[in-house]
Design brief:
Rossmann fold, six-stranded parallel sheet, 396 residues, binds adenosine-5'-diphosphate, single chain, binds magnesium ion, alpha/beta
């Protein structure tokens, strides 16, 4: 369903509350990766270029104790934002009260203000994370319009997204939210065929919802990574010391029966004696010998996966093919990522925190059509769930 977009709003002279996802990695006040700040720029820029006042709300990490506050202030994020926008950004070290209200009332058109981490409110009965009705209403009262651009939080019903939305006559999606919904939505609901899903990562239980949702939508489902060996066990292959969820073997059998030829498993694997980069390792086909664990897909698997990918028009990738954090087991993930980058006539989408980290580390990110900024949110989207943050945005 089409959503109201920030560009549908008349923002001139308006106080525009924008829920962004500035949940960036931060250590000792230093921001690691600022991708999420960069991804929010188009919406902020649009609002200020059109004479609006941009009032930004975001969470950062989890606030459980008073001590967490010093580590997780949004002040360094406001400073980085100011550098990126090349203009002053007002930071208010409060989530409510006179200082915040005065600062908002003193804003001129085109100004940008960042208020303190919305989760500081969690110290008081989890008001943000439990969507306290009074808090959502209060924040909504601070602005004239509401724009939700925080896709990464869309799978949660918090005061700063769903709470504000429900206290405003309408809520619009920002450009990042619009882009995420477009790419993930088209892939799941209206893909160009052949549509291939590549699912990997650690556990079957994490991805079962995605497999179930895509089984009738995708033309092929490639399985790699740690979850492979539960499927191996279901096929009656030996798995040595490989990762396995014994309580999911029956489910894996069911999925294989339902998916038939659609499901593609690796024919060979890189196996090692220990979960260590330096452990003795080798490539084996089929059965995994006793005393070994599979830590990456093998070269024949890479070739067969590449064949499946060759004529794909839509590819969704979630979860690495092996323990890519260790160089000796990164090859499968790298090769599949490279193959994805070489598909010139396909829409390629990556969702999932570790898969995104892998794509960035391995340098294949620039060749991917869309890398989702939301790990958990993209996974739930691929599972076909309705995300509360998106549901709360006005339909048009
Ligand atoms: P994403 O965050 O992209 O959804 P996951 O969190 O599901 O991905 O899985 C990522 C993790 O899976 C990585 O830390 C990786 O090391 C691990 N993994 C991949 N293959 C294996 C394997 N064969 N054995 C053990 N762990 C694996
Ligand atoms: Mg992960």
């Amino acid at each position: 369903m089409a959503k109201l977009i920030v560009s549908d709003l008349d923002v001139k002279d308006k106080k525009v509350l924008i829920r962004v996802d500035f949940n960036v990695p931060i250590k000792d006040g230093v921001i690691g990766d600022d991708n999420r700040i960069v991804a929010a720029l188009p919406t902020i820029q649009y609002v200020i270029d059109n004479g609006g006042k941009a009032i930004l709300l975001s969470h950062l990490g989890r606030i459980k104790t008073e001590e967490d506050k010093a580590k997780l202030s949004l002040r360094p994020v406001a400073e980085r934002l100011s550098e990126l926008l090349k203009k002053p950004v007002t930071f208010v070290p409060a989530t409510r009260g006179q200082e915040l209200e005065d600062a908002i009332n003193n804003m001129n058109d085109g100004d940008v203000l960042v208020m303190e981490n919305t989760r500081f409110e969690d110290l008081d009965g989890k008001k943000e994370s439990k969507n306290d009705p009074e808090l959502g209403k209060y924040w909504a009262s601070l602005g004239d319009l509401f724009v939700n651009d925080a896709f990464g939080t869309a799978h949660r019903a918090h005061a700063s997204n769903v709470g504000i939305s429900s206290n405003m006559p309408q809520a619009a999606a920002g450009f990042l939210m619009e882009k995420e919904i477009k790419f993930l939505g088209d892939a799941v609901e209206n893909p160009r065929h052949p549509f291939v899903a590549i699912l990997g990562g650690a556990k079957v239980s994490d991805k079962i919802g995605v497999i179930s949702n895509l089984i009738n939508k995708a033309d092929r489902i490639i399985v790699g990574g740690g979850m492979t060996y539960t499927f191996y066990a279901a096929k009656g292959l030996s798995i040595g010391k490989s990762l396995v969820e014994t309580d999911k073997i029956d489910l894996a059998k069911q999925i294989m029966a339902e998916a038939g030829d659609k499901l593609v498993l690796p024919v060979d694997n890189v196996v090692a004696t220990e979960f260590s980069n330096d452990a003795p390792h080798k490539v084996v086909e089929g059965n995994i010998p006793d005393g070994y664990m599979a830590l990456d897909i093998g070269p024949k698997a890479v070739e067969s996966f590449k064949k499946v990918l060759a004529d794909a028009k839509t590819v969704v990738w979630n979860g690495p093919m092996g323990v890519f954090e260790m160089p000796n087991y990164a090859k499968g993930t790298l090769e599949i990522g490279k193959a994805l980058g070489e598909l010139t006539d396909a829409t390629t989408i990556i969702g999932g925190g570790d898969s995104t980290a892998a794509a960035n580390e391995l340098g294949i990110a620039p060749k991917i059509t869309h890398i989702s900024t939301g790990g958990g949110a993209s996974l739930e989207y691929l599972e076909g769930k309705e995300l509360p943050g998106i549901a709360a945005i006005t339909n048009k």
